[in-house]
Amino acid sequence: MWRALIAIYISTGSVDCVDRSKFRTFEQGSFGRRYRKYINKVEGDAGLVVHKLDPSTIKSSGNKVQASLLFANDASVKPLLLELSFFLNDVDGSCGIVRAFVTEKDPLHPRFRLTPGDVVRKDEDLQPDQVAVTEGAGFTEIASTRGACKVKLQHSPFQLEFVAHGRVLQKLNSRRFLNFERYRAKGAQAHAGLVDATDLDPNNLFEESFGGHTDSKPRGPAAVGVDVAFEDAVDVFGLAEHAVGLGLGENRLPEPYRFFNLDVFEYALDVPMALYGAIPLVTAIHREKSGETVASGFFFPNPSEGFVHVDASKGSPQTETWWLFESGVMDMFFFAGPGPQEVLQRYHTVTGFPRMPPISTLGKHQSRWNYVDVEDSIGVNRKFDQHDIPYDVLWLDIEHTDSKKYFTWHPSHFAQPDKLLAALEASKRKLVTIIDPHIKKDSGYDVYNKMKNHDFFTKTKDKQLYDGWCWPGTSSYPDFCNPEARRLWTTFFKMDYYPHNRPDLYTWNDMNEPSVFNGPEVTMPRDNLHKCSEKDYEVEHRDVHNVYGFYHHMATVEGQLVRAPNVRPFVLTRSFFAGSHKHGAIWTGDNMAKWEHLAISVPMLVSLCLCGASFVGADVPGFFFDPEPELFRRPTTEREKPWADGPTGSDSPGGTSWGSGTPSIEGMPTSSR
After folding, report:
1. Distance in Å from the first CA to the final CA of the chain
2. Domain for residue 394, yes or no?
3. Domain CATH code at residue 53
4. Does Transmembrane helix count among this protein's keywords (predicted)?
5. 37 with 113, same domain?
């Protein structure tokens, strides 16, 4: 059946309703343009060395090795720090996890690094390997003492080889694309030689504009990039979330895959533009000379805007990639395993394993934007039974609230939610309510007042309260990067705070990229400020953009656990990052009720699963447009998904199978069970 769906997608071509002019391309960002010039410069000079490892600085202790990376063309520039850590797989205690961390020493501004334990588990929670260091002529080998895993460091030019199963699986910086833009003062003296991409293109280092918005960039350039080659790779998968085919090397896209979580409705197909989530993980299948295969993974959890280029040219013995991020540090993981399953075991060892969901959430979900009132919702529930169509969970969108103020109910249309909850309970069904991150700016709204009084909202570059425009109108955005703000958020889920609450009232987190209707690229300015774990608002939004939704999701799950510690939480999120699988479910966003979108949902969901997010689903038959009746008669596509949502937008005729006409429900009950 999947082949038939993919055939439909290929034969009908791409459906493109999104206004792509609102969203930046690779060449429209200065750090992308610089890196392209840097790549061209390095490729055009085979003898050019930019980075070299100083073997005299190598130090090892336990499972860690440190060394300095020197800038070959300017000895006055402080070296970079390279740290390698070896860990064991939690599942069977085997080797096959290597972490490579690169940052600048004594930076002018702190380089943002994710708080240990959030996306990636703390080092002390992982099983350390033991390593042995061996020096050679022009290289150093660091080998696991627990298995056949090792790293070979070439000194000049610097290169890292990841070795397992008796062979080289990955090469880092084999093409010399390593680029680390150090923080510098505006007007600082130019480097004596080529140190980073800013030496080739000094334009827009401290300010740039797009779509009528200006990014002040007060700290200047900070991009990091590197190439990674997968040796003898016959297939590469991952890099969720993009609306493309499953095999990354087969897509032949004109631009690199973009990671920058955005509110992209009616999204285009077969293009590398960013969508709602980002999991910067690639799994490769390597062909052995014997014909057998092994697998490896590369994981780069940087939450700033990123781009990944994949080149799997026919006839080439390897798949070439390069990775570029706007800011932060280089924190990279190499995984090795006999197959993709073992690679994911190692990935979950590093990021954490998913929690068990409530069993009721594994079925059919019914949603519409929006049900009119309590009676309308009860009527929909009743008609599912009348038509003998099974479903498990009913969802309420933004109109159920009082003026888009979350944790409230509409005073007239949903004045009696207990009546709806009782009807659902009688039919053994559950209810989900939407709770988005934008908070209506209203002095009579308690959630707004509490967040403001605690100084827990995101700030502008001038450290003033940031206001954006979303569903409620003028809104403020909680600083979910701040753990104290997340703790306050959890209190809003308590039984005595959220009216008509109950232990199994579940939650939907939408618009959490975050979506800002009047912001650049429909999101938050990059020079906005967060507190995170700092003492003051010192972290730029550009550093943490792709984990805003991750932290919103985390805080909401923790809120449900505060409400009912012994009840399994369920929170669906639209925006996500690596590690979001620990918190709950993900769906593929605002698709269209068209065959092409139904077809592409299959590789999109499989890609998410191959990136460690297995509790995923899609809107079936789609969110926008009036679907053909035949689309409603394809519930077999739902049956193969971990969960399936049946939503529609406000332009659709009812959001139910009978809403598209009687013919659409013929034969449906049997096939949907």
Report:
1. 17
2. yes
3. 2.60.40
4. no
5. yes
Catalytic (active-site) positions: 510, 590
Residue 616 vs residues 254, 262, 314: alpha-carbon distances, Å? 28, 18, 33
CATH number, residue 448: 3.20.20.80
103 residue type, one letter: T
Spatial neighbors of 268 by CB under 8 A, at least 6 apart, are 14, 15, 16, 17, 18, 20, 243
The distance from CA 308 to its chain's CA centroid, rounded to whole angstroms, is 14
- Residue 513 forms part of a structural domain: yes
Report yes or no on 69 lying in a domain. Answer: yes
> Do 332 and 394 belong together in one domain?
no
CB distance 383 to 153 below 8 Å:
no
The number of beta carbons lying within 10 Å of the beta carbon of residue 177 is 24
Kindly report, residue by residue over 304-318, the tens digit of the pLDDT: 999 999 998 766 778
- To the nearest 10°, the Cα dihedral for 456, 458, 463, 465? -80
Q: How many domains does the chain have?
A: 2
Residue 489 located in a structural domain: yes
If asked whether residues 58 and 181 sit together in one domain, one would say: yes
Bridge partners of residue 231, in order along the sequence: 318
Do residues 196 and 140 share a domain? yes
Dihedral of CA 553/647/513/491: which sign? Answer: negative
List the one residue out of 535, 575, 522 whose CA is nearest residue 552: 575
DSSP 418-478: HHHHHHHHHTT-EEEEE--S-EE--TT-HHHHHHHHTT-B-B-TTSSBPEEEETTEEEE-B
My answer on whether 187 and 336 are in the same domain is yes
Q: Which two tokens stand for residue 421?
A: 């909850």
Question: How far apart, in Å, are the Cα atoms of 497 and each of 441, 447, 493, 500?
Answer: 19, 10, 7, 9
**Residue at a domain's end among 351, 386, 403:** 351
Closest CA to 660 of 618, 631, 638: 631
The answer, yes or no, to whether residue 446 has pLDDT greater than 90, is yes
Amino acid identity for residue 236 in this structure = V
pLDDT of 201 strictly over 50 = yes
For residues 197 and 139, state if they share a domain.
Answer: yes
Q: What is the pLDDT of residue 624?
A: 54
Q: With beta carbons less than 8 A apart as the criterion, state whether 424 and 387 touch.
A: no
- Same structural domain, 497 and 585: yes
Query: What is the domain range of residue 577?
Result: 362-591
As a whole number of angstroms, the distance between CA 630 and CA 569 comes to 35
Q: Which of 571, 591, 611 is the last residue of a domain?
A: 591
Helical (H) or strand (E) element with 4:
helix 2-12
**180-193 tens-digit pLDDT:** 999 999 999 889 99
- C-alpha 505/C-alpha 396 separation (Å) is 11
**Mean pLDDT, residues 588-610:** 85
> E strand or H helix at 556, and its extent?
helix 548-563
The 10s digit of each residue's pLDDT in 333-387 is 999 999 999 999 999 999 999 999 999 999 888 888 788 999 999 999 999 999 8
CA distance 648 to 395: 11
Claim to verify: residue 418 and residue 509 sit in the same structural domain: yes
